[in-house]
Write a structure and sequence with these properties.
8 helices; Rossmann fold; globular; single chain; alpha+beta; 2 domains; five-stranded parallel β-sheet; disordered N terminus; Jelly Rolls
């Protein structure tokens, strides 16, 4: 994923020709410097060894978080997660006696995961968890963020902060790609259609109340519009677009990623979101985007190309497999799959030259 991290010294890692980096390519990135090769006490608010957990009693809002990893006599390998399984830093190595420092902007809300509380409401305040084969944390700083660009996500279970592995939404992994000064606020919720997301007070109305001028709102709904008519679907999208614009926000339509349902070596109409009453939902969304002059990221087309290029067998790794995950599910993503779909979403943000693109690592 396009997730190389800004170094504290201000020198960003260079992106490859495609502008995307894998998790493996990120290991060991960061501003490292020699340090005393001796064990360090954990920062205030942190406890444990593997994982190391930290809690800060802050009110809901957006916070600039800076962490320093390493500093111990042995090499470290650390991942950083916040709130309900939002990945901020993929597995990162630090050499013995060195420290690497990273900065992020983090959205804190209650409930901390899915807005309707599916999977639990979590704990008030900011929760950080450092995992990995040998997690090491030498410093943590948490400060209110001064009016960051907030990118809101309106979506379903393929987007949301899934509370339990192996299920992973793309919205909870693209967070590693966003530089300080911008933040992802993920209001996606499992099981929501365009109509239910629009009407539930915890979802679109709650999101709408927080939008400030120029905040982008990414709208990916369609998986659960299985019996929605074309006119109802378009009306729901039109309503969200007009209300976001009325608040000064910038709506962005995202067509739903495909399901893994093959007929031979091609995906079926159901996989491509032609619903039970014959409505081609991605086509309807594209038409709304054209009519309303709203940017459209065609995640259906992008994910179709990816899944079909991998074929019936290899594409299974993007989704949930019984042999690996204990469940077979051709709609929801593994962490690897969410990462690959997130790459496509980030690619679309760059292609459309959206405001968030300036904050991508």
């Amino acid at each position: 994923m396009s997730m190389s991290l800004r170094r504290r010294s201000g020198h960003g890692a260079r992106l490859g020709a495609a502008g995307l980096l894998t998790f493996a390519a990120l290991a060991g990135t960061g501003a490292a410097h020699a340090d005393v090769a001796a064990p360090r006490a954990l920062p205030a608010g942190c406890s444990g060894t593997s994982p190391i957990t930290c809690h800060y009693a802050v009110a809901p809002g957006n916070y600039d978080v800076t962490v320093s990893l390493g500093g111990a006599a042995s090499a470290g390998q650390t991942e950083m997660w916040v709130e309900a399984r939002r990945l901020m830093l993929p597995a990162t190595r630090t050499a013995a006696g060195s420290v690497a420092t990273y900065s992020f902007t983090v959205n804190v809300r209650q409930p901390e995961g899915q807005p309707t509380g599916q999977g639990g409401t979590g704990n008030p305040g900011l929760n950080i968890r450092f995992t990995g084969s040998n997690p090491q944390v030498s410093a943590v700083s948490v400060k209110p963020a001064p009016q960051p660009l907030v990118a809101y996500l309106a979506g379903d279970s393929t987007v949301c902060d899934q509370p339990s592995a192996p299920y992973t939404g793309w919205g909870q992994v693209i967070t590693t790609a966003v530089r300080p000064g911008a933040v992802i606020a993920n209001y996606a919720d499992s099981g929501e259609s365009s109509g239910s997301f629009l009407s539930n007070a915890a979802l679109f109305p709650a999101l709408l109340s927080k939008i400030r001028a120029n905040d982008p709102v990414f709208i990916q709904l369609g998986h659960n519009d299985k019996q929605t008519s074309a006119s109802a679907y378009r009306n729901n999208l039109d309503t969200m677009i007009s209300r976001v614009r009325a608040k000064g926000g910038v709506p962005v339509l995202v067509t739903p990623p495909v399901r893994r349902l093959f007929d031979g070596n091609r995906l079926t109409p159901t996989a491509l979101h032609v619903n039970g009453v014959g409505v081609n939902l991605p086509a309807e969304m594209r038409a709304v985007g054209t009519a309303q002059r709203v940017p459209v990221i065609d995640l259906t087309a992008k994910s179709k190309a990816l899944v079909e290029s991998l074929g019936t067998s290899a594409s299974a790794q993007l989704f949930l497999r019984s042999s690996v995950d204990g469940v077979t599910d051709n709609t929801h993503f593994s962490q690897y799959g969410a990462t690959r779909i997130g790459e496509l979403l980030l690619q679309g943000i760059r292609e459309q030259r959206l405001s968030l693109a300036a904050y991508l690592r």
